[in-house]
User: What shape does this take?
Amino acid sequence: MLPTSLPAALRPLALAESLQPGGGLALRYDASRTRTASEAFAVRAGNCLSLVLMTAALAREAGLEVRFQQALGSPLVTREEDLVLLSGHVNVVLDAPRPRREWNVTQVQPDPRGLQIDFVPEDDLRGLRLVAISEPRVRAMFMSNRAAEALLAQQPAQAYAWAREAVLPDPPYWPALNTLGVVYQRAGHLDEARAAYAHALAQDSQNQAALGNLDQMLRRAVATSASPAEQARYTAKLDALRALARH
Assistant: This one.
């Protein structure tokens, strides 16, 4: 991608310039699916996670180190059919000297430890705090996204495969546990779904995606229970969940 003759100190800025609108890569933002780095490069499009993965791959090809960051703040929680989804935001930092120029489109920002590259407008990031995350966390995010997309595409086998893999790289990452719970729930494995949601809530007792999915599942289970004993069991779990949500 970058000329091998280019001095190492110039490679981060050269890569950043190619990512700009009108730059050599001619990228476009596309949130329709989460692509791999190679897929995003092939079609020159992707959501923020796909473009971050692509940038990291290009940077490493150029001999650069990369770090990943996640924006903390109020995540976007949406409902697709019966699936509660959580949308976060990630970016990538290239190891580079402090740049002399600020990039205001595609958000390349000066950072004392490197060059920070974002693929969303600056206004969308206002008020959010960025924290470093590990590469295993990024892999878990990617696989969890793919699992959710497979669910929405009515591909349960693929969704299960992605969801099972998503919980392995970074076990405390609760969105992957939440997605696994939804996969189990849709397959009718309610005890396994409840266990996955419980693990997600053990990581963050106030996360709205797992709370919403578990509440919905238990209410439905109470309404459709085949016996009074089963109904009482799910009612007790629902009461415990609501008590947890109040704290």
